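Question thread 4412

I'm putting together a teaching handout and wanted feedback from people who do this every day. The idea is simple: show students a protein as raw sequence, then show them the structure tokens that encode its fold, then repeat with a second protein so they can compare. Below is the first pair exactly as I plan to print it.
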Amino acid sequence: MIISQEYPPGQKIDSINQIMIKQSVSRETAKLVLKQLLDEGLIITKQGKGSFVVHHQETKNIWGMIIPFYSSNMEQLIYHLDFEAQKRGKQFTYFLGYNNPDEEKRLVSKMILEGYEAIIVVPNYDESKTAEFYRNLIQGNTKVILTDYTMSGSYFKYVVQSYDLGVKRAVNYLAANHSENLLLMKSETWKGRNLLIELMERSFSMLTVIDYPDKEVKVLSQMKELSMDFIKENKIRGVLCCSDVDAIRVLGRLRKWNISVPEEVKLVSYGNTELTRLYDPEISVIDCSYEEMASKTAWLIDEGKNSGPYEQHIIQPKLIVRGT
């Protein structure tokens, strides 16, 4: 409860007698609990007043990052944030939240208690489960920045890209100069819900229906569903992949099936990690602009209190046409 800020910094916690009653434990166990919390630096005791949750420690020159899963796209963002931290003489480290809202909240609170200068969070992808936590979070001297996520509103400091715009630019490229259909290749290999992929799917379908009513939209959730028969029978002429790794796999399968790219099927990946430039042909991409995202995030950390409580930056992703 201390780690999750259900007991916020400065709040008085239960006495030995209250612990005994609420938890149905002995006096010795209750005393041991308080001693362990004291030894771990989570509480302080005040003579005659009781025990209280500690306030934040002095700030350390450490930037911590929390990501919901590891991917080539996340690796790219980590690389640029690490570069920005090193330029400023800061230590940089990252943690996996495993797409688990409780783990994400625990990690954020723990780093605040440990006095990290900054915490950069790519939120758990079922963000409805963490929004209230961030609205009520007591940060102390730690700067908490949310980046590359989908929650909207004026409650947080964040740096996010406009996924709607990125998808629109991909659709316009994939749909040009033909009357056949489009495919969205999702990437669902993580635990739990992914609101980002849901947003991309909605945008992909809506934009195609509105701007290109002569085309049908097909969506696949997993790579195992993609086959040569599927491409042929559904007259697929353009494919948008939600990750660079999946785009490489799609490109490999199309070549194996002797389907020429981009003459018979156009291919775009959402990401632009170095993987997309290591193959022939190089893969056309929606560039997430992670370098700019990292730079804006670092600016928010540097400016700190001067940037206002709800400073927000929206990155405009760009279409880069290469060989696919």
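The second pair follows. I'd like the answer to focus on this one:
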Amino acid sequence: MEQYDVICIGGGPAGLAAALSARENGAGRVCILERDVELGGILQQCIHKGFGLHIFGEDLSGPEYAQRFIGEVRNSDIAVKTDTMVLEITPQKQVYILNSRQGYQVLKAKAIVLAMGCRERTRGALAIPGTRPAGVLTAGAAQRLVNIEGSMIGRKIIILGSGDIGLIMARRMSLEGAEVLAVAEIMPFSSGLTRNIVQCLDDFQIPLLLQHTVTDIRGKNRLESVVISQVDEKLQPLPGTGKAYSCDTLLLSVGLLPEIELPFAAGMILDKRSRGPRVSESMETSIPGVFACGNVAHVHDLVDFVTEESRKAGRSAARYLREGSPSGKSIACIAGEGIAYIVPQQIKVQNCMKELELYFRVNTVFDNARIVLKIDDKVFKEVKKRHLAPGEMERIKINSEVLIGAENLKLEIEGK
């Protein structure tokens, strides 16, 4: 049984940053496990610019951003196992893996960092009526086919959902010569970044149909058309509003979900709001010595924030090797009115750095609103915001000393 101080599951931006941080902060033997044939994760297929503005102060493509960290890992003594599937982890921090070189193995770790990222919702999760022709793909699968495999997936495109990958693929397919007929979004607001709406839709004159959804898929072998209908305030299709669009490809960009199969099977406590494992201020899960970061903890919008959070997780894993899990009472972080989720979900003040950072998303669009932070139901801090949207993750910082002796912390939104 191979033994490591820290095992990072996932070789994307989260796993790379966590592994490097753990090693830099004193962890001895560190290992990265990656199911793909190369490191870099989803960044390898994100050939557009927009990465690294916060971390490096540069406008990099996904592969360029990933290579900065891959190069550091390759120049270190961190062990890397690619093309390796993790089958199971246990509360005793055993990791069961399988690959074609060494077969079935059990690895033993003193600490584990979960960095498996997220996955896309599929057509099966949406239960869209209609036939099952070729030409219906998730936006991420289409991105890989076009950018890595070099395949042209279609010529007349409809995109369902306005998530960032779907918006980026609208631009990508337009640049490849395809005609993107429309992007349909069931909500009254986009779920993507504002900059992507402007750069990927507005700049290419692609219509965004808010409060619309696909209500029928037609075609025998290849997709021939889809029907798009308006929805009411309860997100139900309105009779008589359906319009048929002739197309050969439907891309689904309808949300991302943290990869929670391993945490769920290991018995970790999951958060119903973020849909990832519940974590503390150090990104430690309910299993001592097991940490979660990046999109497996909660879905991020910028990879720079993934890197920052993952460095914290790696640093915390190295600290766990020296000190174990902190004892003492935890403060509950409560998502109040207007807040979709908040991370971390609990805080042990004695384990905090001087400055504590809270990540959160709102559940609808707000203009001229206030973010209100309450400690034990008393207002401690207010931040005015001209615009808040579900597609953009927000952060707020506080001095952790103000939480000493507190029972709970609550975030809520006041305003329209």
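Top answer:
Good format. For the second protein you could add a caption like this: The CA atoms of residues 89 and 267 lie 10 Å apart. The first helix runs from residue 13 to 24.
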